Amino acid sequence: MRVGVIGAWGHLGSVLEQIEALPEVEISGLARVFPQDRHDQLQQAYPKALHAKVHGTYQEMLESNRPDIAVIGTRLDQISVAANAAAQAGCHLICEKPLAIEVPALAQLWTTVQARSVACISMLANGDRPAIRAAAQMVRSGELGAVAVVNVRKSYRWGERPEWFGRRELYGGTIPWIGIHALDMLWEVTGKEISMMAGWQGNMGHPELSGCQDHAALLLELAGGGVGTITVDFLRPAGAPTHGDDWIRVVGSRGQIEAYLDRGPSGTCHAILENAVGRDVKLPEAGKVFERFIRAIESGKAGELRAETARTFRTTYLSLLGRQAAEQNHICRVDDRYSLQWAQKFSGQKYG
Prior knowledge:
Layout: E1 2-6, H1 12-19, E2 26-31, H2 40-45, H3 47-50, E3 53-55, H4 58-64, E4 69-72, H5 79-88, E5 92-95, H6 103-116, E6 120-122, H7 130-141, E7 147-157, H8 168-171, H9 174-190, E8 194-202, E9 215-222, E10 227-236, E11 247-252, E12 255-260, E13 268-273, E14 279-280, H10 289-298, H11 306-328, E15 331-333, H12 340-347
Parallel strand pairs: 1-2, 1-4, 2-3, 4-5, 5-6, 7-10
Antiparallel strand pairs: 7-11, 8-9, 8-15, 9-10, 11-12, 12-13, 13-14
Helix pairs in contact: 5-6, 7-9, 9-11
């Protein structure tokens, strides 16, 4: 299996770390999106990248190197552009999130992915986290009863952000950049779809990048009943013990559960069931979503990734609708685009 890396920014390391454990996978090429892209740090950190050929452009790499999988990490407005080119070349895709920062660009990428029969996931690995896996197992077992309320929080230090984070046409917004994680967490734990959302966003403390929202919130109506809230911010104090403090709380008709991703080595998960004393939930091992994706392709089972591909597009789409609700200050009804049922009708193939 040949993997080509496009770009030099974002969460590429989280993918390459899992590739290092796969002896049958080769990093065959590293390609620039911008002339200033440098892969030195990746090459130093990941031995498989050390001797990969560095290409001046990804177009040249796709033509001459012909990787099986493209791992794309670059400025957010260029993700869908590079992914379209890689999919046209027949590459399966692991992309930085969001897949696109505008709805038409997302639709174009979906058309290409379907036409070329390639699989696509983004760098959303919430489902790998032990605390999330523990919460999902309990919620989906039915122990909490019917899901009534879901609260998700994503809080980060501001740190250092690139200048282009302040430009809407390059960054896309904090709801697609960070809120997408919260939407993914909600789905991973509950499997609940969203039928309606309202949103708010702003910049309270970082006028130097006024186009980058340092806080945002979504109010959700869940399909089939129940409500949810999502808050995201870049306002975590610099002196906080961890860069992020991510959390999900699910309240059901017979109990509740809280999962903290950044507290302790693997996070924590605590449940309180009806007529029972609260208890910590035993955490399972961490998952390896990128390794699983690559192994499915290697074994000729890329078709089994159709549902994951649709879900990846669905989560991006929801994040763009959430941004729209916040920008237009209105309640947004959520259609079924990129849902499994919609995708099945689109392609004429059975998903699941």
